[in-house]
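Board notes (copied after class):
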Amino acid sequence: MANLRNLKKEIDYRLEEVLFDCDMAMCFQPSKEKEVFEVMEEAVSVRNELYVKVMNPAEPHNASLVRKHYAALRAEMETAFEVLFEKLSKINGAK
């Protein structure tokens, strides 16, 4: 089963990476501050949603379902943060 502490640390690490990239984007492109700030807000929202899902598995007494829940959660985390990075790249690429 997934170690909850490590899973939460991984979520926070990915959030920090997105926020750092957003901060750098705002430093280099102050004209796009509003769009970048929206990505930052969305990243924090994604982090909060993932934390709720980490702390509340569907069937906590069924080990098989818990493992599947955390495997699906990891996949969801990867795609959610990948989408955020893509949004930030589109903002940085637009002129």
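Comment from the instructor: Helices lie at 4-28, 33-55, 63-93. The chain has a mean pLDDT of 92.
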